[in-house]
Structure formats: C-alpha cells, structure tokens
Design a protein that fits this description.
975 residues, alpha+beta, 38 strands
C-alpha cells in the first residue's frame, strides 16, 4: 500500500516556501479581515507604506543572525517574509530507485533526473512555469501551512524539450501539513525563528491519472502497472535561517514516489499510525506495514538528528512479542527517504489483532516505550478548509469526507466529531462498510477553529468574514473607492508583494486596466487553483462578487459610437539567407498581430454590446457570440478569440527574435506600413487593417494555412511554409549559434497553452542551441497551424482552426437570420491613416479623431521602444521580471487598448465610417545605449503622453493615469 509498495523512487533536494508572514503578525482581525494597530484598525484610506513602516518600527527587531538588535534587519511584527508571494517550488532530483526492498539500483536511467512540482495551467494568461502555492489556513497559528500543487512531473534532464519528462500529471485539492515534528532538529542555537528552524513537516498528494510519457526506465513501467496512480510523499525540515527580509525560506527536502491505491487517503500517509506516548521521547510519528515475512517502516521524520537511542524495537502492546527490529545503523543512514524494510520477527503473526508500540533499551537495558499505535485512526483529505460565512440556511454546505482504519485496515467506524470553537453547523456523520464516510459543515461565525475526528484526526477550518451586505450594493454604486475600501486595501496592508512585484492596488488606473483579470483570478470557482488570488485564499464570495460588479460597471462605461501558385527557390543554405528569413518571420509575426488586434478592436466591447442589445441592434445571442459573457468566465466570444490569437502572435514575435539573437543578430523591430508591406513580404496574401467580417477572416485563414510539406526557400504561401524553410535551414547551416548555453534570454511564460504546459511546464522561450531553436520554431508553428508537437490530451485549436471556426460562426449567423445583415463590428476604415497623399490608405480627416490616433501611435511607439530597450540592455535576462517589458505590457493593456476601443467609435471624417488605430510609427523605436539616459527619455515621453491625454475628455482617465505612473517609474534611478 502506498509508500509501502514497490517500486519506490526516492528524491531529495531543496524546497522554497515564500509564505507571506504579515497575517501572522497578531495584528489581523480574522473575523473581519481588518489590519490592526495597537490602538485599533488602521485607516484603509491611508497609504499602505505607512502601515508597513508601523509594523517594522513596532518590532522587536533582530539582526541577520536572528539576535535581538534595536536596528536589526528583521521585525518580529512584520515577520521575516512580509513580501512573500505565496509561491512554493522545489529543486530536487531522484536519488534512488528501489524495485527490490532495501536495494537501490544505481544504474536506472531515472537517477539524477529532476523531480518538479508546478502550479495549475492558468487558462486566462496561458502560462507555463506556474508555481505551486503555500498558505496558512489559520494565520493566528503556525501549524496550518498548506500546499496547493497543480502538476507534478519527474524524469527530465535539463530542459524538457531536450530530455523530456517520464511522467507528468495533474494534482487536485490541497495538501495539509502532516506529522509535524517541533523538535526534528533539536539544537538550532539562539534565534528568533528557533521554532521554525527546529521543526519538520510531511506533505503528501496523489496524481490520479498520470501521463506516462517515457518508459525507458524499468521502474516507470513497473509503476504504471502497480497501482491506480502515484502517491508523492515528502518532508520539509532543516530550514535555513533567513539572512535578509522578504526572501523565500529554503528547506531540506526528501521524499518518495510510489504506487497509489484508490482506497487510500490522498494526503495522509498510509499504514498503521504510531504516535509519541507523551512528553518528549525523542522519536516522532511514524507508520508501519506488517507483512508475514517483512515489516516496512515509514520513518520519514520520525528519527531526529542526531539520534542516540539505539535500535528501535516494534512489539505488540498486549503480549509484548517482538514484531521487528530496526538497527540504529539502518535508520540512521537509510538512503531511502526514511522508508525502511526489515525482516519480520515471530511476533508478526500476532500483530494483526493487537496494537503496536515502539520501544528502545535505555543504558541499563530496560525497555522504554517511545510510541504507541492509534488503533482507530480517522483522517480526512479535506483537512484544510476555508468556508464562506452563511446565514445558517441549507445550500451552502461543504462536505468533509474521511476514512476510518482499525490497525491500518478500513473499518466502518463513525468518529465522534467535535469542534474546538463554536463556529460551524456540523451535519450528521455517515460511514459505509469500507470506512469511507463524511459529514457536512456550514460556516456560522467568522474565525478559525479545528474539527477533531478522534484523538489524531484534525481538520483546520477558517470561516471567512460576514460580508453579505456587499451583495445589496447596486452595480451603479460600485466605484473604485468602494472596491478599494471593501476588498483591496486589506491585502496591500498585510503584504507588500502586490505593491512591489505587480502593481499597487491603490492605483486606480492599474486596477481599472486589469479589472477583468482581477475578477478572473478571484473568481470563487478558481479557489482550488494555484493561480487563485489572493494566495491567502481568504477573499469572501461577496467580495469577489463586488469585483464582478466593478468589472461590469467598467464595461458599461466603454465609449459609444458618435492565390495563385508561387514560384520556388532553393532551400536555405547560408547564414545570410537564414537571417533574412528570420527577419521576415519577425516582421510577419508583428504584422499579423496588428491585423488580428485591429479586427478584435473593431468588435464592440461587452459594455457597448449590451447597449446594442437594449437598442435592438443585436440580439442577446449575438452579444454572446461576439463578446462572450464579458469576462466572467472563459467564454470570451469572437472578440476574445481574436485577442487570444493576437497575444500568442506577440509571443511568437519574441520567440523568433530569440532565435535571431541566438545566431548573433540584434533584436529586430520592423516598421509595419500596411500601405507598402505587401510588396515587401514573401507571402501572396493581402495584409491590411480591416474590421471583422467574413472576408477579413478568410484572409486570416490563408495566412495560417498549414504547410503541405514541400521544401523551399520562398516565396511562401503561408506562415507555416516560411517556418518549414527556416527549420530546414537551421539544420543545414553550420556553426550558427554564438550564445552561451543557459543565456538564451527572452525568458517568458505567457500565452503558452495547456498542451505545452502538460509536457513542458519548464518552457520559457529560451534559445541557445539547435535543439532549443528547433523547438521554438515548432512551438510557433504548433500554435499557428497545429499538429506539429506531440500533445497529451487536447492541444487546443490552432490559429487556423480558430479562424475557420469564426468564419463558420459568422456564416451560420448570417444564414440563421435568413440572409439578413448582422454587423459584428464597428464600421471602421480599412487601413486608416493620419497621413495624406496617394497610396497611403484611408485618411482620417476629423481633427479630434486624428489627435487621438496620434496618441495611440505614440503609445504604440513607446511599447516597441520599451521592448527594444530591454533587449539592448539585458538581452539574456528574464522578460517577466523586466521593468521595461512589464511597462510595455502596461502600455498594451492600459494605454493602447482603451485608446483603440475609443478610436473605433469616433468619426473618421468619412460619412458613416469610424476610425481605428493605424499602428503608424512617428519615428523608429531605436534604443539608447545608456540606461540612465534611456529612462529619463522614456519618463519625458510618458509625461508628455499623459499631459496630451488629459487635454481630451474623451480619453479614459486611466490612460493618462497609466502614462503618468510610468513617467514617475522611469523618472527615478534604474531598478
């Protein structure tokens, strides 16, 4: 059963927990989620930095060595990681493969391979490298630190696209702390975190449906045949003392992967449970499995280091017969993560009918009892609950399931369920003949409590504050000030993570810009996901619904309207030809992204669409077809589908640039002029900025047409044919790559699909050799045409598939209306321009609209300049941690998007037609070699843009707000 079964894979390494310590300060009222001072609640209207300074000054203070010091770097009130992100990660490898009990196979291919925990795939941001999470169910105590893991995998060597995973799989639910040992490391010296440094804790989770990707190891084949899934058990201990505040904690990690049976618990170690008899015996909780010929001990954290207690004797409690002996030298030096198998003694025959105990002999040879079995052991996988407050009426219940075991075997016993504090309504307990049972709980009063399932089964429960009055607030009254006071301010007060790592929740322009994303991350339906916000998981459902009302109000405030066969050239065989093709690919990726964005922006926003429904211009069905449900779920309609494809094209633009830079070329920022681009591109397809209609979608289908496999160097009929030639050229041209291994740069993980995340959760765009370059090309082609990379499960629609589906939807709606005309887009111009003269597109002659177009084009220029400046300064560093790239994302979402959504509603000067964003560059976005000068220049640009935005009352306030925020950010020293 479980870790008692073979084969077993043992692993070890380090773990990083970034638990936010602010809620542990003792200055949080968990019944109302209020940040306190010694004199009462801190005013939520005051800046968060004032409260943070109050916590630091309140102390007591400690130096880097953990000793009392009046001006030390640590404040006990703020905690050692006040800015914790809630991330959990491991750096571990397989240390042993055990296919025969007690014998490790040093030659198994898995030895030395990586073991990883990841978070869930974030469908909204489409990311890889998603982190698992850690949070306190009860922030008033230190013993409810719970993990949330979304995906597990092992077997990769280096990057998974070089040597892939042997197994990956999804993980459901939370992993509560088990077998917490407060004295695992007895001697840690004088330190203000001595209690943390001494302790160890065990976690366990299950992969119920593993993906078996590589069976080159005999152990993997054995694992696949041995059980219903995989169980992963590991311990954290020997925490390294932090030396600076706001840094993750490093722990020693050791654990085991083994077969799992569906009749076992997912999060609690299997076997017969033995616990300390009372007092400090030196030995801690363990479990055993007694077989006729051998006994297996799960000693993962049972034996402290060092141990001087001699051999461990397992005996029956009644007849005192010897069941097994674990010699001191065996458990002291076991390389099997504490899983020890020894021969069974004669008393094993009596073990089934009697309790067990562990004894050792003192220095006089007298037996001393250390542990005794918990004969009736009742445990729940649902041992970490966060419940909403209710009024006591049915319909808001959570069900807690448990399993009961008598001496390690399923037993139909119903426990006496008690709660320590009267916060819950607990329903009737039921249990079946296999020991599987449950009961319902309902939150009646806010606070924290423990539900006891007998002497050793405990469920930690938090009931969230009673915020039901927020449901009575009408949508039209939900302002930013109200949302900040009722929802956002608390989280910025008790942690600095959002303000320092993401954006301040007090910045109205940023909150307005990311209102949809904030709702999606806080949607109660995502509470079981690792990406759920806040990571503390203490946002009540009424507060989440208030965020949804805020989103709806923001949407309602949206602006209203006033191929012939081509010739073929030889394959790519020289570096010059390859560089030229890569630059063409970069230009194409940017051009197609702009086309798709234009078509998406031409579709009315959800707020405008609801007005059109009220006016009778659209039906409710057409609104859902075009706009989905407005961001409440992933049903985003045609508009969201176009934006999703455009975001992936932005990722392609960066990925192909990574390939270009890896062969020694600079980051390429092409100028895309839609009046001349068709004469410069190697595709016989008309590139243009057009509104969404059947004809524009047909052009998109042609651009993304799958490759027919014919080799060639160009011209090409589609993007995929160009990439086929590039891929072929990468393999033909020798000595291409000038970048050092590991310095591929451009690392990012946005807009990557679940199919990539399932098999390559470590992928981040890096290119530093032929293998990574080919994978990058395959990744781009997979998203464009599909069917290129092997996928586990549904790979998701390619861009070609997406556009075919949109075309089918438009045609079906046209036919459904009996041939009547449905206009899914604003009547925007084709190739709008602020210029004049022949061959320059359709000029926008309305003076006010032209000024807004100039604002948009300046913001587009600044977005490209920020990107180019990043690669000029730090080409081999992370994009997602770059202030320049994060500012570029702010410009795209907070400046360009609202300006574009305004432009498609403004008059163009052509009767019956509106304008649109022209993506014209006022000048080439050339980076500056000196970072300090570049930032001053960027700050001036944004200050000027903010001032110009404020002069036009049609421009949303948040556009000027984001611009002013970026001007202030870059006005200071480089970060």
């Amino acid at each position: 059963m479980s870790v008692f079964d073979l084969p077993r894979l043992h692993f070890g390494g380090t773990a990083r927990t970034s638990l936010p310590t602010g809620p542990r300060s003792g200055l949080v009222d968990v019944t109302t989620n209020t940040a306190l001072t010694d004199s009462g609640p801190f005013p939520v209207g005051r800046p968060a930095r004032e409260y943070h300074q109050y916590l630091v000054d309140r102390g007591p203070r400690y130096d880097a060595a953990g000793r009392p010091c009046p001006d030390g770097v640590f404040s006990a009130t703020a905690g050692w990681n006040f800015g914790g992100s809630g991330h959990f990660a491991i750096d571990a490898t397989i240390t042993g493969v055990e296919r025969e009990a007690g014998r490790l196979d040093p030659d198994d291919p898995l030895v030395g391979r990586c073991v990883d925990v990841w978070g869930h795939h974030n469908e909204y941001l489409a990311t890889t490298v998603n982190r698992a999470r850690v949070f306190d169910v009860d922030p008033t105590a230190a013993d409810t630190m719970t993990l949330v893991v979304g995906q597990f995998g092992f077997g990769r060597a280096g990057r998974s696209h070089d040597v892939g995973y042997a197994v990956t799989g999804q993980v459901a639910g939370t992993s509560p702390p088990r077998w917490q040992n407060p004295d695992h490391v007895p001697d840690v010296g004088e330190h203000f975190l001595a209690a943390e440094l001494r302790r160890s804790v065990v976690y366990q989770f299950v992969v119920e449906e593993p993906r078996w990707l590589d069976g080159t190891s005999p152990a993997v084949e054995h694992l696949e045949a041995a059980g219903d899934g995989l169980v992963v058990q590991f311990a954290l201990g020997h925490m390294s003392p932090p030396t600076a505040p706001d840094t993750p904690n490093l722990w020693r990690l050791w654990g085991t992967i083994a077969p799992w049976r569906a009749a076992e618990l997912r999060t609690h170690p299997a076997g017969r449970l033995l616990v300390p008899c009372g007092g400090r015996t030196g030995l801690h909780t363990l479990s055993v499995d007694v077989a006729p010929t051998h006994v297996t001990f799960n000693l993962i954290t049972a034996v402290p280091r060092p141990w001087r207690g001699g051999d461990l004797l397992l005996r029956t409690a009644g007849s005192d017969e010897l069941v097994a002996t674990v010699p001191e030298k065996v458990h002291e030096h076991a390389p099997t993560s504490g899983i020890v198998t020894v021969p069974a003694a004669s008393g094993a025959r009596a073990a089934n009918d009697q309790a067990l105990r562990v004894v050792h002999l003192d220095r006089h040879g007298h037996p001393v009892e250390l542990l005794r079995e918990v004969e009736l052991n009742v445990q729940s996988d649902d041992a970490a609950l966060v419940l909403d407050h209710t009024d006591g009426t049915p319909g808001h219940d959570a069900r807690v399931t448990f399993r009961a075991f008598l001496r390690g075997r399923p037993h139909p016993a119903a426990p006496v369920v008690r709660q320590r504090h009267d916060l819950l309504a607990i329903g009737e307990v039921d249990v079946d003949g296999t020991g599987l049972g449950g009961f319902t709980v309902r939150g009646l009063r806010a606070g924290v409590t423990r539900v006891e399932l007998g002497p050793h089964g405990v469920v930690a429960v938090r009931v969230l504050p009673d915020d039901r009055e927020l449901d009575d607030i009408p949508e039209q009254d939900v302002t930013f000030e109200l949302v900040h006071e009722k929802v956002l301010a608390y989280y910025e007060l008790v942690s600095s993570f959002m303000r320092t790592e993401v954006f301040s929740l007090a910045d109205r322009c940023r909150v307005e810009t990311y209102a949809t994303l904030m709702w999606q991350m806080c949607d109660p339906r995502n509470k079981g996901k690792t990406y759920y916000m806040p990571p503390t998981r203490d946002l009540s459902a009424p507060k989440a619904r208030l965020l949804l009302k805020y989103l709806r109000r923001q949407q309602h405030r949206a602006p209203r309207p006033i191929a012939a066969e081509t010739s073929w050239t030889p394959p790519i065989t020289t570096r010059g030809e390859l560089v030229a093709a890569l630059r063409q690919a970069v230009t194409l990726e940017l051009a197609v992204m702009l086309q798709y964005l234009y078509a998406a922006y031409s579709v009315p926003t959800y707020g405008v669409g609801t007005e059109w429904v009220r006016e009778g211009r659209w039906t409710a069905e057409q609104l859902e077809l075009a706009c989905g449900d407005g961001g409440r779920t992933l049903r985003t309609g045609i508009r969201g589908g176009l934006l999703g494809v455009a975001r992936e094209e932005m990722a392609h633009y960066l990925v192909v640039n990574n390939v270009l830079m890896a062969v020694g070329e600079p980051f390429h920022v092409p100028e895309v002029d839609f009046t001349t681009i068709n004469a410069r591109l190697p595709l016989p397809v008309d590139f243009a900025l057009e509104p969404l209609h059947l004809g524009s979608v047909q052009r998109f289908i042609a651009i993304e047409e799958p490759d027919d496999g014919r080799p060639g160097g160009g011209p090409y009929r589609s993007l995929s044919e160009l990439y086929g030639a590039i891929r072929d050229g990468l393999t033909r041209v020798p000595d291409l790559f000038a970048v050092e291994r590991g310095r591929g740069g451009g690392e990012h993980h946005l807009f990557l699909r679940e199919s990539i995340d399932a098999t390559h959760p470590d992928y981040q765009f890096e290119v530093d050799d032929l293998s990574s370059a080919l994978f990058a090309v395959d990744f781009v082609t997979e998203q464009g045409e599909g069917g290129v990379l092997p996928a586990v499960g549904d790979p998701g629609p390619s861009h070609h598939d997406t556009f075919r589906r949109i075309a089918d939807l438009l045609m079906t709606e046209h036919l459904r209306g009996g041939g009547g005309r449905w206009h899914p887009a604003h009547p925007v111009l084709r190739n709008p321009t602020t210029g004049t003269g022949p061959g320059v597109g359709q000029p926008v002659t309305d003076p006010g609209t032209a000024r807004v177009m100039a604002l948009f084009n300046r913001s587009y220029y600044l977005m490209l300049l920020l990107t180019a400046q990043h690669f000029a300064e730090r080409p081999d560093t992370s994009l997602r941690r770059s202030e320049l790239m994060n500012a570029a994302i702010d410009v795209m979402t907070g400046v360009m998007r609202p300006l574009a959504e305004l432009l498609v509603t403004l008059p163009s000067g052509v009767p019956g037609r509106t304008a649109g964003p022209s993506f014209e560059l006022p000048e080439p976005p050339v980076p500056v070699s000196r970072p300090d000068v570049a930032r001053r220049r960027i700050a001036r640009e944004f200050a000027d843009l903010a001032a110009r935005c404020r002069q036009d009352d049609r421009v949303p306030d948040r556009v000027a707000g984001i611009s002013a925020h970026l001007a202030a950010r870059f006005g200071g020293p480089p970060r």
